[in-house]
TrEMBL record:
Topology of this chain in the membrane: Multi-pass membrane protein
InterPro entries referenced in this protein's UniProt entry, alphabetically: MFS, MFS_trans_sf
Tagged with keyword Transport: yes
Transmembrane segments annotated in the record for this chain: 42-62, 74-93, 99-122, 134-156, 199-220, 232-250, 262-279, 286-308, 352-371
Alphabetical keyword list: Membrane, Transmembrane, Transmembrane helix, Transport
Signal peptide residues on this chain, from the entry's feature table: none
Highest taxon in the source lineage: Eukaryota
GO MF annotation: an example: transmembrane transporter activity
Protein location: Membrane
Main location: membrane
Protein name in the entry: MFS general substrate transporter
Gene3D superfamilies: MFS general substrate transporter like domains
Length: 412
C-alpha cells in the first residue's frame, strides 16, 4: 500500500516529466518563429531529435548497470536533476550546433531512467501485479503529450518583451520538474533467443508511439489546423491513449496474458494508420489519430512485463530491461520517416509504419507459439518426476537456473 500511495505516484510523475522533455521540441516546432529565432534550417529539428536517440539508446544498458552498482534510487534522482537542467538550457538555443549538443546531452541524462524504474518496480511487485504498475508509469508518456500540448497552447498566447514564446514554453516545463523532482550480471540472457527477438519486435510495436509522440502536432497542423491550434488539437489523442493503456495493462494482469494484448494494441494502431493513409478528409484523419493512439502506449509496458515475467533472476532481469532500451531505435526510425518533405499528408511515413507494425504483429504471434510449444515440451519432460527431482531442479542442482529450469512456466 505504501508503495502504491507514495513511491509509484512519484515515479509516475517523473515519467510524465521525462515524456514532456522529449515531446516539447515538437510543440515548439509548430510555432512559426521557433526555427527562425533559433537560426535553424528545415531538417535541423528532426535531425536533432534523431541524434537524441543516439545517446538515449546506446547508453541505456550502461546506465542501468551503473544504477544497480551505486543504488537505483540515488541514480534515478541524479538523472532527474540532470535532465531538468539540460532541458531548461534549451531556451538558449540560437544555432544548430547548440540544439544538437543539448539533445545529445538530454539523451544521455535520460538514458537509464526508464529501465532503472522498471527494474526497481520489478523488485517490489509480484509478476501478476507488475504489468499494471508499469502501465501506470508508461501511461504518463501519453499524459505528457496531452499536458505538453495544453501548456504549449497556453504559453504561446503569452507576450513577453524579454523572451520568445517558445523560450517561455521550454522554461515553464523545466521549472515544474525542478520543483517536484526530488548478484552479478548473467551474460546468458544475451544468448536467449526469445528475449532478444522480443526486444526486436518491440521496436516495431512502439513505432507509432515514437512517431506520434513527437510529431503529432506537426501531423495535425498538416491536416489544415493552425500552428497553435494544432498543439491544442493534439491533446485529446494522448488522453484517449492514456485511458486505453490503463485498461489494457489492467486486463493483461487480470488474465495473466501478454502477447494477445500486445498484438491487439498494435492492431488498433494499424487501423488508425490505414485510415490516415487512405483518407484525404482532414476531420476523418484527425478522428483516427485517436484510434491509432487508443492503445498504442500499452505495448511498451506489456512487453517489459512480459520480459520480466520470463526472467526470474534479478541480475539477468536488470540486463534484459537495459537491453530492451534499444527498442527506442523506433524513435530514430520515426524521426527519419516523418520528415518535413512528406508534409502535409505524411503518406510515405504512414505507409512504412503500417508495414513495420504488421511485421511486428506477426512476430509476436510467432513468439506466443514458441513459448506455448516450449511450455508443452517442458511439461512432457517433467511429467514423471518425483518430489526429489523437482526439488533438485528448483535449487539448480541440475545446472539449470532461472527461466532455463524445466519446471519454469513461461508467460505468453
Amino acid at each position: 500500500m505504501k508503495l502504491d500511495l507514495i513511491v509509484l505516484p512519484l515515479l509516475a510523475f517523473n515519467f510524465m516529466l521525462c515524456g514532456i522533455d522529449k515531446t516539447n521540441i515538437g510543440n515548439a516546432a509548430t510555432t512559426s518563429n521557433f526555427a527562425k529565432d533559433a537560426h535553424l534550417k528545415i531538417n535541423d529539428i528532426s535531425n536533432a531529435v534523431s541524434l537524441l536517440s543516439v545517446t538515449f539508446i546506446t547508453l541505456q544498458p550502461l546506465s542501468t548497470i551503473i544504477g544497480r552498482r551505486i543504488s537505483v534510487k540515488y541514480w534515478i534522482k541524479f538523472m532527474i536533476l540532470a535532465w531538468g537542467a539540460i532541458c531548461m538550457a534549451h531556451a538558449g538555443i540560437n544555432n544548430r550546433q547548440t540544439l544538437i549538443a543539448l539533445r545529445l546531452l538530454l539523451g544521455a541524462a535520460e538514458a537509464g531512467f526508464v529501465p532503472s524504474v522498471f527494474f526497481y518496480l520489478s523488485t517490489w511487485y509480484p509478476k501478476n501485479h507488475l504489468g499494471f504498475r508499469l502501465g501506470l508509469c508508461a501511461g504518463m508518456y501519453s499524459i505528457a503529450g496531452a499536458f505538453s500540448g495544453l501548456i504549449a497552447y497556453g504559453v504561446f498566447q503569452i507576450y513577453s518583451e524579454k523572451y520568445k514564446n517558445w523560450q517561455l514554453f521550454l522554461i515553464v516545463l523545466t521549472q515544474a520538474e525542478r520543483e517536484h523532482s526530488l548478484k552479478r550480471m548473467d551474460i546468458e540472457v544475451i544468448k536467449n533467443f526469445e528475449k532478444l527477438v522480443t526486444v526486436v519486435f518491440n521496436i516495431l510495436a512502439t513505432l507509432p508511439v515514437s512517431a506520434f509522440g513527437t510529431f503529432l502536432p506537426l501531423i495535425v497542423k498538416g491536416m489544415g489546423y493552425s500552428g497553435i491550434k494544432a498543439n491544442l488539437m493534439s491533446v485529446s489523442p494522448f488522453v484517449v491513449g492514456a485511458f486505453g493503456l490503463f485498461m489494457f495493462v489492467y486486463s493483461s494482469d487480470h488474465f495473466h496474458e501478454r502477447s494477445l494484448h500486445t498484438v491487439t494494441s498494435m492492431a488498433l494502431a494499424l487501423i488508425g494508420l490505414i485510415v490516415m493513409y487512405t483518407s484525404s478528409n482532414p476531420h476523418l484523419r484527425y478522428g483516427f489519430t485517436h484510434v491509432c493512439l487508443a492503445d498504442a502506449f500499452s505495448a511498451g509496458p506489456l512487453i517489459v512485463g512480459w520480459l520480466v515475467n520470463n526472467t526470474p533472476l534479478l541480475g539477468p532481469r536488470s540486463l534484459i530491461i537495459g537491453i530492451n532500451g534499444y527498442s527506442n531505435i523506433a524513435g530514430v526510425i520515426a524521426e527519419q520517416l516523418f520528415k518535413p518533405q512528406y508534409a502535409p499528408s505524411y503518406g510515405y511515413p504512414l505507409k512504412v509504419t503500417m508495414i513495420l507494425v504488421s511485421v511486428g504483429m506477426l512476430g509476436f504471434l510467432g513468439m506466443r507459439a514458441t513459448y506455448m510449444y516450449e511450455n508443452y515440451w517442458r511439461a512432457k519432460q517433467i511429467a514423471g518426476w518425483d518430489e526429489e527431482q523437482r526439488r533438485a531442479e528448483d535449487v539448480g542442482e541440475t545446472g539449470r537456473r532461472g527461466d532455463q529450469r524445466w519446471n519454469f512456466v513461461s508467460t505468453y
